[in-house]
């Protein structure tokens, strides 16, 4: 199996056509090759994709931030400071003086209140992050409000652990948008949503220059940024999905950073004195989502069998070499309550026995929607090969991430192979998507991963709700360990790996930041020798 997987990686790399050479990058510009085909919208109230949130993390200021090297250290960004009432229900934020939007408008508490209200009122994919505090379209303007230009008040519905509330405001929904500019482009009461899909209304260190879907994204430095202008005056991100093409561009000096090199390319550039590697453990998980609408996947024995039909060691050692470790529970290592035991390994005979117990000794046919990038396709092909050994005919349906995600979010898949990153650094971020689903109907308002896979986790939903009110850290951690064990046993997920991100850079590039989450990768500190 190791040889088969290695062959798949090599074959994919050799099939990639080289790109035309470009001029060397300017000294004051950062040029990256990055697979950005998941970009759907540039609106912080609607974005829920890896690339979009990395974009937002570099172009919008959020209310709260945290130290990338010690996520327990939370600090103010737009919110300079805050107080929590004795009953735990009211958060009062002091908004920092002197921040201006790129438009020239002053940033005030009214902008911060509008930004949070807008997330709830638009009710797009990330709205659940704020919705879990009891905010609705009917009450949000009363419960999130500016009392003066520098004071933002937020009233939650239950006495949650304060860190849970604050961590949520470090996520994309905590981005502050320019109320005046957004409402200038409002149409038919859409709160500027259509305009914001392709435009910018922030105060961050970089400003949107142009987005050409499927091709590139370019930013310019905000020279008046309140916390200091970036050294790089431009950031140009080229949508290059092929790892071999990224390597070629990097070694020629046509780009400064390659973001998606695969195992073969990483091994090759390690010997290049002009290239250096930067790595960071991430909270992102690779997993399979199994639709419970599928007659075969809804059988408990089948779900368990599939967990024994992944060559975890082979994929980590070859396809993901250096970029992932086996991890099978829904909380990444490093989170409060993370369960780091991995009970499943490749066992064809065990899987066959389970399939026979399900009345499927001769196997079955099923499809898997797969992002058509090198690593994901190689993982899918490895899984296809091992499943075939148990009689399962897996058809891979490749597509751009935007296509596969859209289908997945509409519950139109059999199996989806994907990467899930936490929205904030509290364990509830993953518990509330893998183990929580209060309404499994097709028209539900909350659409976590359990919902996407048409799974009703039963009593686990109430257990997740209870865990966020537990203020004793040890007790709370034990509750999450119990939830992870239950999802491992019965859930419609084959959780496989925790990601390590590696960026390959030209030797003259300094201070590029990879953070613990996908939206904490920062460009503003980059310099070039």
TrEMBL record:
Keyword rRNA-binding: no
Recorded superkingdom: Bacteria
Compartment(s): Periplasm
One Pfam family matching this protein: SBP_bac_5
Positions of the Solute-binding protein family domain: 74-435
Residues annotated as signal peptide: 1-23
Chief place where the protein resides: periplasm
Keywords: Signal
Family: Belongs to the bacterial solute-binding protein 5 family.
Protein name: ABC transporter substrate-binding protein
Species per Swiss-Prot/TrEMBL record: Thalassospira xiamenensis
């Amino acid at each position: 199996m190791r040889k088969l997987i290695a062959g798949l990686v090599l074959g994919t790399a050799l099939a990639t056509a080289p790109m035309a050479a470009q001029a060397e990058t300017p000294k004051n510009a950062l040029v990256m090759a990055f697979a950005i085909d998941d970009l759907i919208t540039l609106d912080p109230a609607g974005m829920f994709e890896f690339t979009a949130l990395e974009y937002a993390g570099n172009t919008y200021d959020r209310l709260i931030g945290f130290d990338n090297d010690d996520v327990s250290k939370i600090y103010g960004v737009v919110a300079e400071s805050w107080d929590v009432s004795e009953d735990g229900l009211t958060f009062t934020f002091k908004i920092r003086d002197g921040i201006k939007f790129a438009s020239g408008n002053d940033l005030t508490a009214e902008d911060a209140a509008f930004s949070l209200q807008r997330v709830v009122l638009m009710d797009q994919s990330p709205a659940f992050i704020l919705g879990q505090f009891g905010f609705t379209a009917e009450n949000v303007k009363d419960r999130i409000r500016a009392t003066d230009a520098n004071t933002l008040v937020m009233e939650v519905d239950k006495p949650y652990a304060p860190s849970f509330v604050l961590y949520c405001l470090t996520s994309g929904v905590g981005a502050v948008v320019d109320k005046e500019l957004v409402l200038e482009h409002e149409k038919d009461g859409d709160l500027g949503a259509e305009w914001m899909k392709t435009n910018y209304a922030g105060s961050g260190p970089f400003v949107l220059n142009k987005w050409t879907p499927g091709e590139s994204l370019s930013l310019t430095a905000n020279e008046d940024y309140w916390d200091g202008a970036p050294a790089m005056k431009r950031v140009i991100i080229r949508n290059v999905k092929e790892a071999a093409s990224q390597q070629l561009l990097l070694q020629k000096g046509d780009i400064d950073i390659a973001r998606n090199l695969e195992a073969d390319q990483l091994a090759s550039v390690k010997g290049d004195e002009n290239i250096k590697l930067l790595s960071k453990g991430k909270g992102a998980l690779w997993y399979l989502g199994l639709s419970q609408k599928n007659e075969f996947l809804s059988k408990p024995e089948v779900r368990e069998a599939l967990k024994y039909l992944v060559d975890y060691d082979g994929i980590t050692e070859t396809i993901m070499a250096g970029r992932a470790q086996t991890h099978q529970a829904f909380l990444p290592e490093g989170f409060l309550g993370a369960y780091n035991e991995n009970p499943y390994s490749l066992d064809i005979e065990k899987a066959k026995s389970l399939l026979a117990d399900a009345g499927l000794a001769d196997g079955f046919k099923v499809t898997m929607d797969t992002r058509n990038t090198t690593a994901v396709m190689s993982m899918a092909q490895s899984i296809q090969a091992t499943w075939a050994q148990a009689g399962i005919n897996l058809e891979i349906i490749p597509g751009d991430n935007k296509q596969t995600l859209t289908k997945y979010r509409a519950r139109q898949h059999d199996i989806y192979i994907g990467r899930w990153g936490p929205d904030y650094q509290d364990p509830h971020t993953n518990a509330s998507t893998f183990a929580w689903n209060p309404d499994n109907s097709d028209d539900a308002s909350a659409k976590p991963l359990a919902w996407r896979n048409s799974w009703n986790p039963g009593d686990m939903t109430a257990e997740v709700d209870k865990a966020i009110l537990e203020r004793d850290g040890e007790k709370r951690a034990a509750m999450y360990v119990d939830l992870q064990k239950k999802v491992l046993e019965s859930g419609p997920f084959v959780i496989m790996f925790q990601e390590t991100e590696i960026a390959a850079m030209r030797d003259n590039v300094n201070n590029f930041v990879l953070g613990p989450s996908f939206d904490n990768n920062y460009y503003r500190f980059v310099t070039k020798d």
